[in-house]
Write a structure and sequence with these properties.
This protein is of the alpha/beta class and 674 residues long. The chain has 23 helices and 16 strands. The chain folds into 4 domains: 90 residues, Signal recognition particle alu RNA binding heterodimer, srp9/1, CATH 3.30.720; 185 residues, Rossmann fold, CATH 3.40.50.300; 70 residues, Helicase, Ruva Protein, domain 3 (Orthogonal Bundle), CATH 1.10.8.60; 187 residues, Methane Monooxygenase Hydroxylase, Chain G, domain 1 (Up-down Bundle). Helix 1 runs antiparallel to helix 5 and helix 17 crosses helix 22. It is elongated and about 130 Å long. Homohexamer.
Length: 674
C-alpha cells in the first residue's frame, strides 16, 4: 500500500512499473516548452531594447536632414532605413521648427503638436517607389550607407512570435494525447476532466475513531464487522464468509453519517476516499461513468480501503420514474456504479459506504444483496448519546462550574449531532460577546433559545398588540401546564423572535417513541389555547394564530385519515401522499378516494378541532384569574419562567404511565375524555 503524499488530492490510478516510466516520459515535455518560451522572451527583449535606442521619424524629415548634410550613416533594410545623425542638436532644432510651422493657426493648446525628443539613432519607413531615388540622393550627399537583408535574429524573433499560439495549441494536444490511449479513461485526452474527483485521506490525517463518535452504539456495532474484515480479511475467508460489499447509512441530516464512515476507516487504519454523488454528474454524456470507473479502479489498486459516497441519492435515484428528471447521464452513471459493485471479487478488501437522507428514492438495484447489503439507520441521538456528543464538543471550550452537561442533554431532546455542536459553539460565542472568562449555564440557555425560538427582533409592538400577544401566549402556557400528556412548559416570552411575536417554549422531559389519541387531543387543545384566550378576553380572533391553526389542522387530518382515530371513518388510511421518513415532507400524488369520503374526512377534522377549542375555552374560563396574572407578568417583565408559572398554577399534574382507561363516547362515537 502506497500512501498519497498530500491530503485532499485526487488519487492516481497508475501502477508502479510502466506507470513510472510513463511519468518520466511525461515530465520531460514541459521543459521543451519552457526553453521555447525562454527564447521567445529573449528575442522580444532584444527587439524592445534595440527599438528603445532609436527614434522613429517621418520620411520627409529624413529627406530634409539628408539634403542639409546632417545624416552621418544609414543602412537600408528592405523598406526601412536606420542611421545616425551628424549633429543631434541641429536635427532637434530643425524638428522643433517644423512642428512650430505645423502649429501656426492652431489657437487651442490642447490641439498643438509637440516635437519628440530625438535619439542619436533614427529609423524611418521608405515608400516603395522611392527606393532607387533614395540611394542616389544619399550617394550625392556623401552618406555612408549599405543595403542589408533582415537580421537573422529579427527574423527568428518574428517567426517565434507568430508561431507561438500554434505551438502552444499543438503542445497541449500532444501532451494530452500522450497521457493514455483511452480517450475517456483516467488519463486520456480529457484526463483530468474525466478523472475521479474522490479525495483521499491518509490514516495519519486527522484520524477519527469510534471513540470520537459519541452515541450511535447500534451503528458502531453493525460497522465493527467491517472494521475487523479490513484488519484481518483472512479470518473471514477461512470459513468462507463474505463481508458486505456495501453499507448504506440512512438518517436525517446532521446525525453524523460522514463522521461514522471516517471512523470506520480510522479504526481499520486504511485509506479513505470521499466523494459527493453530485460530482459524478456533468453536462457531457459519459463523463460520470468514466469517473466511476476511475474511482473504483483506484480503490482496487489501493485495497484495503474505504470508498465513501456522500449524498448518493443525487446519482442513485430510481431509473425511469421521473423523480429528479430523466437525465440520461445520471442513469448511465448509476448503471456504471451497479456494474462496478458487481465486479468486486469476494477477496477484494474494498468496502463501499454510502450516505443519504432520502432512502425512499434510491433505485432498488442499489439496495439488493450483493451491492448495498447492509442498511444502517443513524437516527438522532438518545439522552446518553447527547451527553457524549456534548462532552466531545465541550472539551474544546472552557466551561464554568455551574454547567451540567446532563441537564443540557435533558433540554435538547430531538437535537441532532450537528445541532448539538452548533449549540456548544453558540454558547461560547455568547460568552465571548459578554466578556466572560468561561461558558456558564446561562450561555447554554441563551444558545438554546436562539436555536429553537430564533433571534430576538428589534421591532416594537403597540400596547394592544403586546396585550393580545401576552394573553395568546398565556393561553398556550395554561393549557400546556394543566394537561399532563403534553410536554411541560419551560418558558413564556412576548419578545419577538424569528417570525413569531411571542413564544411558549415546551421542553420534553422524556423521549417518546409513541403517541396515543389522548396526547394528540390534548396537543390540539394547547395549539388552540392562544386563539381561545384572545376570543375570551378581546372577543375577537387575531391573525397571529395562523401557524397554530396550520399545525392543529395537520394533526387532526392525520388522526382521521392516517391513524384511524375516528369511529365514523373507521380503521382505514386515506393519504394524499407519502411522507418522507426523515425530512417530514410529503410527495403528493393523485387522491385515491371519493369526494364523499373527502367530505366526511373534512367533517371529522372540523368536529375534532371544534371540540379541542371548546375544551381550551372552558379550561381558560375556569382559570381566568391565572390567565390575567400570567399576562400581566408578561407585560411587565416580558419573560415568565417555569417556576413563576408553578407559583401561579400550582404543581404540574404528572402523567400516569401505567394508567389504562377506556375512553367514553357520546352517541356519535366521539371521544369525550376531555
Amino acid at each position: 500500500m502506497t500512501d498519497s503524499p498530500e491530503q485532499n488530492t485526487p488519487p492516481s490510478g497508475d501502477g508502479s512499473g510502466s506507470g513510472k516510466a510513463t511519468q518520466r516520459g511525461r515530465s520531460s515535455f514541459p521543459y521543451y516548452m519552457l526553453i521555447f518560451l525562454f527564447l521567445v522572451l529573449i528575442a522580444w527583449g532584444w527587439q524592445a531594447i534595440s527599438a528603445s535606442q532609436r527614434t522613429e521619424v517621418s520620411y520627409s524629415f529624413f529627406l530634409s536632414q539628408l539634403d542639409a548634410g546632417n545624416v552621418k550613416s544609414a543602412s537600408v533594410k528592405g523598406l526601412k532605413v536606420e542611421g545616425r545623425w551628424k549633429n543631434l542638436e541641429e536635427a532637434q532644432e530643425q524638428l522643433k521648427s517644423t512642428y512650430e510651422k505645423l502649429n501656426e493657426g492652431v489657437t487651442e493648446e490642447s490641439q498643438q503638436r509637440k516635437a519628440p525628443e530625438l535619439a542619436d539613432a533614427f529609423s524611418t519607413d521608405v515608400p516603395p517607389q522611392e527606393n532607387d531615388e533614395l540611394l542616389r540622393r544619399m550617394e550625392k550627399s556623401g552618406v555612408e550607407f549599405g543595403s542589408e537583408n533582415e537580421d537573422f535574429t529579427i527574423l527568428l524573433m518574428q517567426s517565434l512570435i507568430y508561431l507561438l499560439p500554434f505551438a502552444l495549441l499543438m503542445g497541449f494536444l500532444f501532451f494530452a494525447m500522450r497521457r493514455s490511449s483511452d480517450p475517456m479513461g483516467s488519463g486520456g485526452m480529457f484526463g483530468n476532466f474525466a478523472k475521479s474527483q474522490a479525495k483521499r485521506f491518509r490514516p495519519s490525517d486527522q484520524q477519527t475513531t469510534f471513540d470520537d463518535v459519541a452515541g450511535m452504539e447500534h451503528a458502531k456495532q453493525e460497522l465493527q464487522e467491517v472494521v475487523e474484515f479490513l484488519k484481518e480479511p483472512a479470518k473471514f475467508q477461512r470459513l468462507g464468509a463474505e463481508i458486505p460489499k456495501g453499507v448504506l447509512l440512512m438518517g436525517p441530516p446532521g446525525t453524523g453519517k460522514t463522521l461514522v464512515a471516517r471512523a470506520v476507516a480510522g479504526e481499520a487504519g486504511v485509506p479513505f476516499y470521499s466523494i459527493n454523488g453530485s460530482e459524478f454528474i456533468q453536462m457531457f454524456v459519459g463523463v460520470g461513468a468514466s469517473r466511476v470507473r476511475d474511482m473504483f479502479r483506484t480503490a482496487k489498486e489501493n485495497a484495503p480501503c474505504i470508498l465513501f459516497i456522500d449524498e448518493i441519492d443525487a446519482v442513485g435515484r430510481i431509473r425511469g420514474a421521473g423523480v429528479g428528471g430523466g437525465h440520461d447521464e445520471r442513469e448511465q452513471t448509476l448503471n456504471q456504479i451497479l456494474s462496478e459493485m458487481d465486479g468486486f471479487e469476494s477477496s477484494a478488501a474494498v468496502i463501499v459506504i454510502a450516505a443519504t437522507n432520502r432512502p425512499d428514492v434510491l433505485d432498488p438495484a442499489l439496495l439488493r444483496p450483493g451491492r448495498f447489503d447492509r442498511h444502517v439507520t443513524i437516527d438522532r441521538p438518545s439522552r446518553d448519546g447527547r451527553v457524549g456528543i456534548l462532552k466531545v464538543h465541550a472539551a474544546k471550550i472552557k466551561l464554568a462550574d455551574d454547567v451540567d452537561l446532563q441537564d443540557v442533554a435533558n433540554g435538547t431532546i430531538g437535537f441532532s449531532g450537528a445541532e448539538l455542536k452548533n449549540l456548544v459553539n453558540e454558547a461560547a460565542l455568547i460568552a465571548v460577546r459578554e466578556g466572560k472568562n468561561a461558558v456558564d449555564s446561562d450561555d447554554f440557555d441563551s444558545a438554546r433559545d436562539k436555536i429553537t425560538m430564533g433571534v430576538p427582533r428589534e421591532e416594537k409592538m403597540t400596547q394592544k398588540e403586546r396585550r393580545m400577544t401576552a394573553y395568546h401566549e398565556a393561553g398556550h402556557a395554561i393549557l400546556g401546564w394543566l394537561l399532563p400528556e403534553v410536554d411541560p412548559v419551560h418558558k413564556v416570552t412576548i419578545v419577538p423572535r424569528g417570525r413569531a411575536l411571542g413564544v411558549t417554549q415546551f421542553i420534553p422531559e422524556e423521549e417518546r417513541m409513541h403517541m396515543g389519541e389522548l396526547r394528540l387531543r390534548q396537543e390540539l387543545a394547547v395549539f388552540l389555547g392562544g386563539r381561545a384566550a384572545e376570543k375570551l378576553v378581546f372577543d375577537e380572533y387575531g391573525a397571529g394564530a395562523e401557524n397554530d391553526l396550520k399545525r392543529a389542522s395537520d394533526v387532526a387530518r392525520r388522526m382521521v385519515s392516517a391513524w384511524g382515530m375516528s369511529d365514523k371513518i373507521g380503521p382505514v388510511a386515506y393519504r394524499d401522499g407519502e411522507e418522507h421518513p426523515f425530512l417530514g415532507k410529503e410527495m403528493h400524488e393523485q387522491r385515491k378516494y371519493s369526494d364523499q369520503t373527502a367530505f366526511l374526512i373534512d367533517q371529522e377534522m372540523r368536529e375534532i378541532l371544534i371540540e379541542a377549542q371548546e375544551f381550551a375555552t372552558k379550561t381558560l374560563e375556569e382559570n381566568r384569574t391565572a390567565l390575567d396574572e400570567i399576562s400581566e407578568k408578561l407585560l411587565d417583565q416580558e419573560i415568565v419562567s417555569r417556576d413563576e408559572i408553578e407559583k401561579i398554577l400550582g404543581p404540574r399534574i404528572e402523567r400516569e404511565d401505567n394508567a389504562v382507561s377506556k375512553p367514553s363516547t357520546n352517541g356519535d362515537g366521539q371521544s369525550t375524555d376531555e
